[in-house]
Design brief:
Order of helices and strands: HEHEHEHEHEEHEHEHHEHEEH
Helix content: 40-55%
Strand order of the largest sheet: 3-2-1-4-11-10-5-6-9-7-8
Radius of gyration: 20 Å
CATH architecture of the largest domain: 3-Layer(aba) Sandwich
Strand content: 15-25%
Mean pLDDT: 94
Distance between the termini: 50 Å
Shape: globular
Number of strands: 11
Largest sheet: 11 strands, mixed
Low-confidence stretches: none
CATH class of the largest domain: Alpha Beta
Length: 313
């Protein structure tokens, strides 16, 4: 059943006021990845550079009626080379975002995290889903559901900070971060509750900045004001969270997919912590989700340009 995608539409409308973000698209060798990049270009979200086997890309475009006239193609022999060449375009300053095509996510991320030729920063790389959940009033960020399998406390500091920085780039008026566990009380037998408490104290001490943290919180306590009232939890985050930090990848993956398949949510994916935002899309994504992922990356790139300009000034 069609719906309005109101949250994503507001995001895309704002992105139309910005210049297109130069984006290296790694190995767009099937219809969905090539069309996704071209659709985002037509909306003015990105200025794509297609990186992959030129003959194959042109053949896909011809077969499916996708107009790639005037779009630059960087010719490579195979997917590994496409990932490396796309990363190199970023290192050269020609691209401000990276977009996954039809290659496997592991292939692209291996090129990103390579020590000498990749896009590492001091921050750990992590993934965020920016979710449009029809029944929830606000845009919801879920992290990390795709990159860090069993993150340590130190890893979670970066995961939380990446998510806060994303929320600020998306212009959330207030960033309210719920550190999720199975309960809202600290229990020494449940390690995620101890880490949640530690993360909150680290925020108090300025080790995590830009958001309001609370945890541990069970999912119902994070997003339901009714649950908060019943359990008499006093918190500026509980019941009103717009960032959900999960204990591990398995929990995050199940949460995101539950929202997608049982609550009719869309999930735009973005990887943060590298030199540029990385757009991760799936063949199962809707057109709106693909466009929203590009819009999210464009806003992150815009926020980085603004920060760099302020630093120079």
């Amino acid at each position: 059943m069609a719906r309005e995608h109101a949250k994503y539409q507001r995001l895309l409308d704002f992105c139309k006021t910005l210049p297109p973000t130069p984006t290296a698209v790694a190995h767009p060798c099937d219809e969905s990845s090539l069309k996704g990049a071209v659709d985002a270009m037509r909306l003015g979200l990105i200025a794509p550079i297609l990186v992959g086997p030129g003959m194959r890309i042109r053949a896909v475009a011809a077969e499916h009626g996708i107009d790639i006239g005037g779009v630059e193609i960087v010719d490579t022999p195979h997917s590994d080379a496409s990932a490396a060449a796309a990363v190199e375009l970023v290192r050269q300053g020609r691209a401000e975002a990276l977009m996954k095509g039809s290659l496997h996510t592991d292939e692209l991320m291996a090129a990103v995290v390579r020590r000498d030729t990749g896009l590492r920063t001091a921050r750990r790389v992590s993934h965020c889903f920016v979710m449009d959940v029809p029944a929830y009033a606000e845009t919801l960020i879920v992290t990390d559901a795709a990159v860090n399998i069993a993150p340590t406390l130190d890893d979670k500091v970066d995961i939380v900070q990446n998510a806060i920085d994303l929320a600020r780039a998306l212009r959330f008026p207030e960033v309210r971060v719920a550190i999720l566990s199975a309960m809202e009380t600290v229990n020494s037998k449940v390690p995620s509750t101890l880490e949640a408490a530690a993360l909150c104290k680290m925020a108090d001490r300025g080790q995590i900045t830009g958001g309001i943290l609370d945890g541990p919180l069970a999912l119902d306590n994070a997003i339901s004001l009714e649950s908060v009232a019943i359990k008499k939890i006093h918190s500026p985050v509980a019941g009103r969270a717009n960032v959900l930090v999960v204990p591990d990848l398995e929990a995050g993956n199940m949460l995101a997919k539950s929202l997608s398949f049982m609550a009719d949510a869309d999930a735009a994916g973005i990887v943060l912590g590298a030199r540029v935002p990385i757009i991760l899309t799936s063949r199962a994504d809707s057109v709106m989700t693909r466009l929203a992922s590009c819009g999210v990356a464009a806003l992150v790139a815009h926020a980085r340009r603004e920060a760099a300009a302020k630093a120079i000034a």
